[in-house]
Design goal:
By secondary structure, this protein is of the alpha+beta class. Helix content is 45%, strand content 20%. The strands form nine sheets. Strands 1, 8, 9, 10, 11 and 12 form a six-stranded antiparallel β-sheet that branches. A five-stranded mixed β-sheet has the order 18-21-22-24-23. Strands 27-26-28-29-30 form a five-stranded parallel β-sheet, with helices on both faces.
Length: 774
């Protein structure tokens, strides 16, 4: 019987198929997980961007409102400068303010007693027209009638813009209860008060815009206003400004990048919140723009303070942004992920090892990335805390400067008080400059553009100077401050005296700041055991609060203090120790710390002395000091007088006034240009008319044309008169940049009066001699 043949079966790849299913399952699972993550991430990103824009919009609007309120100080100073302000003066002063966005109307409303009414209601002439000043109010039908008798009337006397609101003269604000309440609050407090938002002059113009009226009380010049009774007795009247929320808000939003966001603004000071403005995106259809309601749950509310009133802003995504937020890209990820999973499955047999290597690399890179992210977050946290601390440190002296500057306007200020206020402003200005110098020093060190000198100095004299400067601070806290020397020490060492004094001022100042009982001692030792490496150790020992071991590690890092609570309690920027340590290292030394919590600290500064072999060694400290050295009192510089014609190119109004005042007081004739283009034209015109300027003082950072370009074009035009650069930049290389542009010399802001005048005098004199000898 013939055997039956067996048909061969094709090979079965069961193992391969099983692996394919496993890969597909993992791939599809990862795909759906990624799709879910992408959906959530996209949603979170868009919501975060929406809230950030809403917060930035609120901050911009609040800043603009605050700026408008700050302009009231100018108005108050304007009325305080004269016993009587006529309408022409009022118009000239107010017109520039009306150019500002949001400030639409400004009125002068004097206080008129019943006895003064007849005198006030006399007709007046203004710009060739006669006006009737009858004091009036509106009746229930909205008609103007004679105002009812009252103890005080508050009629409108001046109105700007005059052409549009001049017919409002005589209208009595005292006839309206809501305004009387606001005026009483402003009068009694002495600060501006704000009314509820409402249309302005609605009876004449039914479509009048909604405004918030700001009442600024003006008191009789020279009269006391310290108490409520005095302010009530000496009230002169009110300046009333109409601030348009719509213009203010839209102008603020114009400075931000456009976004698909709608916003509604409400006045919350009223019983029922009133909608005073709505900002709607272009993506909202025309039929959706009336009676807007934010039906979405994605909303964000912020508040803005304007005086004692509150504007509440409600933000919501516009339809276009809403569509973008809700756009679901998960299906695209699912499709692409599925295709990728199939491709991956077909290659799984040959790519196992490669996948393992890739996974290992991914894990390693993930760990590295996590470490980098942790480091970045730590750095950002440190810098955020530093910026908050720096804001406090800068705002503190700025608050004192602005506050005491306001006090200088008081009419009854005595000469002693005036001098005290000026000293306080100068002291806080110097402190603010020290903070900025610390930041600049650290920037130079970080950029590698910081250099140190090496000269022969008396170490004992430097330490004595530091003690003299800081002794008053120590006495004020009731602690001791003294020095001790382990003799002998060299009479001279070679180092940078300015940077050594800076290091010691930082360390001793910190020791005094953190010591409440006991004292601070400076211990000096000299080590000459190594003939080629003489060193001096200056140890600052205090009995203060001490530092824990874990806090010492972060002590010398920029932007940090040992404990951030110290910033709030004791102040400081967290830069002093970081700068001191780097300066010590640049001087060939270092700073070490030893400390015990609640017992005290010891900071040891070690420096290379570079002393020659034959230097005199001091065995008695009486030999260390020059009796005629530190006790010399600085001689007061004599007022300098200079003749000549100066062109000041400066765009800042305050700097224009300050520098012009200093130059004119010194005897100079000064012209001012607001930018480089104007300065260029003025200098060339004066040269063509044969009346050239003796010197141009050129600010290097100006709008339209900066000082570098203006100087370069002047030199290209053949202008050979002296040009001195004036700039706030003080980094290494800035002077060379100015000189390369064609400037003859260079000085920095803030200007130092004597240095500036000496430089100008020397430059003018040099060029006069040069031209005579030519």
């Amino acid at each position: 019987m013939e055997a039956k043949s067996v048909k061969p079966q094709p090979p079965r790849f069961r193992i391969f198929n099983k692996n394919v299913l496993i890969v597909l399952a993992i791939g599809l699972g990862a795909t759906f997980w990624l799709a879910s993550r992408e959906k959530q991430s996209h949603y979170s990103h868009e919501i975060k961007a929406f809230r950030t824009y809403a917060q930035n919009s609120t901050n911009m609007i609040q800043s603009l409102v605050d700026a408008r309120l700050e302009e009231f100080d100018l108005i108050k100073a304007f009325f305080a400068s004269s016993s009587y302000v006529d309408e022409t003066e009022f118009q000239i002063f107010i017109e520039p303010l009306l150019d500002k966005q949001g400030m639409s109307v400004v009125l002068w409303v004097p206080q008129i007693t019943a006895e003064q009414r007849d005198e006030f209601e006399q007709p007046i002439e203004y710009q060739g027209q006669s006006y009737d000043l009858k004091i009036q109010q509106y009746d229930e039908q909205g008609q103007r009638i004679s105002s009812l008798p009252r103890e005080f009337h508050y009629p409108i006397r001046y109105a700007q813009p005059h052409q549009k609101y001049g017919d409002m003269r005589g209208m009595d604000y005292a006839s309206t209860e809501k305004f009387r309440h606001v005026m009483v609050g402003a009068r009694d407090s002495g600060v501006p008060h704000v009314s509820q938002a409402s249309p302005f002059n609605q009876r004449k113009n039914p479509d009048a815009p909604i405004v918030t009226r700001i009442f600024l009380p003006i008191y009789i010049n020279g009269k006391p206003t310290e108490t409520v009774e005095q302010r009530r007795k000496n009230l002169h009247g009110y300046v009333v400004c109409a601030l348009r929320p719509d213009e203010t808000i839209e102008y603020a939003l114009s400075h931000l990048a456009p976004a698909g966001i709608d916003m509604l603004v409400y006045d919350d000071s009223q019983t029922q919140p009133k909608l005073i403005h709505q900002h709607l995106s272009r993506s909202r259809r025309a039929d959706q723009r009336d009676n807007v309601r934010f039906e979405t749950q994605i909303t964000f509310e912020q508040s803005i303070k304007i005086g004692a009133q509150t504007w509440r802003i409600r933000f919501a995504p516009a339809p276009l942004l809403m569509a973008r937020i809700m756009n679901d890209q998960a299906w695209l990820i699912v499709i692409l992920g599925s295709i990728g999973s199939l491709l991956l499955a077909t290659l799984i047999a040959t790519l196992v090892n490669r996948e393992r290597n890739i996974a290992r690399i991914v894990d390693q890179r993930t760990i590295e990335l996590e470490k980098a992210m942790d480091a970045a977050e730590s750095a950002n946290q440190s810098k955020s805390e530093f910026l908050a601390n720096m804001s406090h440190e800068i705002r503190t002296p700025m608050g004192a400067i602005l506050g005491y500057a306001d006090l200088l306007d008081e009419a009854d200020l005595t000469p002693t008080d005036h001098a005290s206020h000026v000293d306080t402003i100068k002291r806080n200005g110097k402190h603010l400059l020290e903070i900025l110098n610390d930041i600049l020093d650290l920037s130079k060190i970080e950029a590698g553009k910081f250099s140190v000198e090496s000269t022969d100095i008396s170490l004992a004299q430097i330490i004595n100077d530091v003690i003299s400067l800081l002794r008053v601070r120590a006495i004020g806290k009731g602690i001791k401050l003294d020095s001790e020397y382990v003799l002998p020490i060299p009479s001279k060492i070679k180092t940078d005296p300015v940077r050594l004094r800076q290091i010691l001022m930082n360390l001793v100042g910190n020791a005094i700041k953190f010591t409440e009982q006991g004292g601070v001692r400076i211990l000096v030792r000299f080590d000459n055991r190594d003939p080629e490496n003489h060193r001096v150790a200056i140890e600052i020992v205090d009995t203060g609060i001490g530092i824990s071991e874990d806090q010492i590690d972060r002590l010398f890092k920029p932007f940090q203090q040992a404990d951030y609570s110290m910033t709030r309690q004791f102040g400081g920027t967290g830069l002093g120790l970081a700068i001191s340590k780097r300066l010590a290292q640049m001087l060939g030394g270092d700073i070490e710390v030893k400390s015990t919590l609640d017992e005290g600290s010891s900071f040891i500064v070690s420096l290379k002395t570079n002393t020659p072999p034959d230097v005199k060694m001091i065995g008695d400290m009486t030999e260390a000091f020059d009796p005629s050295g530190s006790d010399k009192k600085p001689t007061k510089s004599k007022p300098i007088k200079i003749s000549g014609k100066i062109l000041l190119a400066e765009d800042g109004p305050d700097n224009q006034r300050l520098i012009s005042f200093l130059l004119r007081k010194a005897g100079l004739d000064v012209d001012v240009a607001g930018n480089g283009k104007i300065a260029l034209d003025m200098a060339l015109d004066a040269l063509r008319n044969n009346v050239p300027y003796d010197l141009i003082l050129m600010d290097m950072q100006m709008p339209e044309m900066d000082g570098y370009t203006a100087t370069y074009q002047l030199r290209e035009s053949g202008y050979d008169r002296p040009i001195v650069a004036l700039t706030a930049h003080a980094m290494a290389g800035d002077k060379e940049k100015c000189l390369n542009a064609g400037c003859d010399d260079y000085t920095t802001k803030p200007v130092k009066k004597q240095e500036l005048l000496d430089m100008i005098s020397a430059t003018i004199q040099y060029y006069k001699i040069k031209r005579r000898s030519a």
